[in-house]
Amino acid sequence: MAEEETRGICVRDISAEAFITGYAEHLKNSDKFELPVWADTVKTATFKELAPYGDDWYYIRAASIARKVYLRPGIGIGQLRKWYGGNARRGAKTEHFRRANGGIIRSVLLQLEEMKVCEKLPSGGRQMSRVGQQDLDRIAGVVYHDQED
């Protein structure tokens, strides 16, 4: 029992849904992370018909992107576009895979860089900064202990 209490909780130790919800709430309450002006009108991908309904969708996407960068250092905008992409339904014709909107991903990563959560790699892509990794692990620990109670 004593070993578990001393061990630090990281992002890998909790479910994705729980972490993304907790980190999205943290970003929403943070004064450094701002919602863009265009967030209420933009679609998340070309295959979508409408913009997301939820008010917090941008914070949730940002938390999800931050988690992806944490788990896969060196991931770039192209890989994230592929991850958030999906099938475009074209009526009677067969479906085709379409990538997600890169502008949203880019704006999230730029804001995370301004917050010193992630940083660019010289070889391309992004990775978590030391401060960002500590921040995400701290929030993961808070979410983990809230789930236990």
Automatic annotation (TrEMBL):
Entry's transmembrane regions: none
Q: Which GO terms describe its molecular function?
A: RNA binding; structural constituent of ribosome
Q: Which Gene3D superfamilies match?
A: Winged helix-like DNA-binding domain superfamily/Winged helix DNA-binding domain
GO annotation, cellular component aspect: cytosolic small ribosomal subunit
Keyword Methyltransferase set for record: no
Q: Which Pfam families match?
A: Ribosomal_S19e
Q: Which family does it belong to?
A: Belongs to the eukaryotic ribosomal protein eS19 family.
One GO process term, biological-process aspect: ribosomal small subunit assembly
Organism the protein comes from:
Grammatophora oceanica
Cross-referenced SMART domains: Ribosomal_S19e
Tell me the protein's name.
Answer: 40S ribosomal protein S19
Alphabetical keyword list: Ribonucleoprotein, Ribosomal protein
